Amino acid sequence: MLKFTAIMLDGLNYSAWLFLVAVGLTLIYGVMRILNIAHGAFYAIGAYVCASTLGLYYGAGLPEALAFLAMGLVALIAGVVLGLAVERGVLRFLYGKDEVLMVLVTYALFLILGDAVKLIWGVESYFVYQPYAYFGFVEIGGLPYQVYDLLMVVLAVVLGVALWFWLERSRMGRMTTAVVADREISAAMGINVKRIFATTFAIGTFFAVVGGAVTAPKIAVTPGIGVEVIILAFAVVVIGGLGSIPGAAIGAVFAGYARALSVHLAPEFELFAIYAVMAAVLAVRPHGLFAKVSGRKI
Amino acid sequence: MTQTMMKTDFRREPVYIAVLALLLIAGFFLPSWLRFLLQTALAGGLVALGVAIQMRAGLVNFGQGLYYCLGGYAVGLLSAKLGITDVFVLLASAVVVALLAGALLGLLLARYREIFYAMLSLAVSMILYGVLVKAAALGSTDGFNVPPVTYLGWLPEREIRADVVYTLAAVLVVVSCLVVARYLRSGAGMLCEAVAENEIRLEYLGASPKRIVFFVIVTAAGISGLGGGLLAISTGHVDPLMTNWTTSGGFVFVALLAGRGSTIAPVIGFFLLELVQTYALDIAPNAWQMILGAVMLAAILLLPGGLWSLIDRRGKA
């Protein structure tokens, strides 16, 4: 019974985390048709920036409760700056190129940013456990559980709903949806597609950075943490259907529970489990659960 | 089609014979570290060639390392665990294992195109990676060593062992490139490009794109398996990194950079990549990936037609 509770809660927690790291990837792909491997590097940078900031913050002896505000603020700044820098600095010269070529471009960016992280922060680990310990434990079904982990679920839901709201209700979001449907017609209707691209990329990057920032207090922040993330995020996004935000949510739940189940029942198959789910889904729905069907052209 | 028939001089047999002769002669003069690098590049070059063949059919395989790794582990397991040391048996089994895996996966992957083909093949290779990393009996992330091989019962003396392996690798790789070049010139090979151009029209003409794609996947798997086997024999070691996505990413990069000019081009491209990697690692141990990434970006931005386009351009002018 205790194990069941643990699986349910861990599954929820993993799902929230996977959603945070995967939703930016799917957003960027949906709008820009770029499968952004550098997403993993953005995640890592988020974790490092958060760790450094919190280190300085606690070092200055500022009130502990406001550390979370600092985390959020720094993630926002880092996400926007990083996203715009990469989009304006590199990607905008390559729009209209083949999708697969763009994968290679972002792969090159991933390599560059990965080493940039090493040059800036060095190779030793960073620990900032304070925010994780701050909320303490709550007992659920006889199992003490970290409140921080539960708050991550809340954060994922809030950010997911906010993103949905932005896309569906705001002017900019509607324009973004129009660009997804047809880039050229939208441009002809007077939508500034370039600005939509830059904004989308910044938002997507922000999600990756937030994912890294909220994870930083739970782990040792070391070089190489971005690699695993990108592999997992791909699986999540492919399960849900590339470019679909509800798909990313459902994919995150599938993959999250697959991971929780395997961690508790068969730990040696952790990575394998997520990919097995992915292969199973694709065998039934070849382009993911929420993918749009597209006709074949002559 | 006239395009492909035009520059025959780079595709014909004498070119391959010349390359082989050059490789064999170079084997005597190159410093041993450079020759070793060339040798591993020959093995990896075959995998890049496998990726390049699929690219002709419009398919980009981001997990070709899978067959590289399977070939390597097939050789490793047979020699280290079962005591089979004959190089020809080992390499043949590497190819067979890769062909079988290719046929099995081909059934699934032949349905997919474009980014899905890329990501799904990546996923499959990462499953193997995940399994191997956890397999303590196979040395987990460290992999394991492969004992020296024999040639029809002859075990070369320690001093000339490297020479023999190098010669074998050079011959096998160049012959493989030649065979692939002939295949690409054949009717079946030409159909690959038609798949990339327009599948539905191809169906109207009576050909089956699915069957063509399946055949391409299996062929590419076979030569990649041979590459993996050669690497295992060359370095005397195999590890799960062979099927990691970063390895496969390198193959895709090389195949793209090599372009469509010649089947030798991916091998040369992979050698250049290895050289860049070695020098970058030497100059900046903490930032070699940054240099590699920058070179990749520069190549993609500045040479959209691949390295071969440099020669093509000169030919046209």
Question: Care to describe what's here?
Answer:
The complex is a heterodimer of chains A (298) and B (317). Chain A is built from twelve helices and two strands, in the order H-H-H-H-H-E-E-H-H-H-H-H-H-H. Chain A is globular, with a radius of gyration of 19 Å. With 298 residues, chain A is mostly helical. Chain B has 317 residues and is mainly alpha-helical. Chain B has one domain. Helix content of chain B is 74%, strand content 1%. In chain B, strands 1-2 form a two-stranded antiparallel ribbon. In chain B, helix 7 crosses helix 8, helix 8 crosses helix 10 and helix 11 packs across helix 12. At the A-B interface, helix 4, helix 10 and helix 12 of A face helix 6, helix 9, helix 11 and helix 13 of B.
In short:
The complex is a heterodimer of chains A (298) and B (317). Chain A is mostly helical and 298 residues long.
Bulk shape of chain B: globular
Distance, first to last CA of chain A: 57 Å
Q: What helical percentage do the residues of chain A reach?
A: over 70%
Major sheet description of chain B: 2 strands, antiparallel
Global Rg of chain A: 19 Å
List the helices and strands and how they pair.
The complex is a heterodimer of chains A (298) and B (317).
Chain A: H1 2-32, H2 39-59, H3 67-89, H4 99-121, H5 130-134, E1 137-140, E2 143-146, H6 147-169, H7 171-181, H8 183-188, H9 193-215, H10 225-240, H11 245-265, H12 270-284
Antiparallel strand pairs in A: 1-2
Helix pairs in contact in A: 1-6, 1-9, 1-10, 1-11, 2-3, 2-4, 2-9, 2-10, 3-9, 6-7, 7-9, 10-11, 10-12, 11-12
Chain B: H1 2-6, H2 13-29, H3 32-56, H4 65-80, H5 87-109, H6 114-134, E1 144-145, H7 158-185, H8 187-197, H9 199-204, H10 209-235, E2 237-238, H11 245-258, H12 265-283, H13 288-302, H14 308-316
Antiparallel strand pairs in B: 1-2
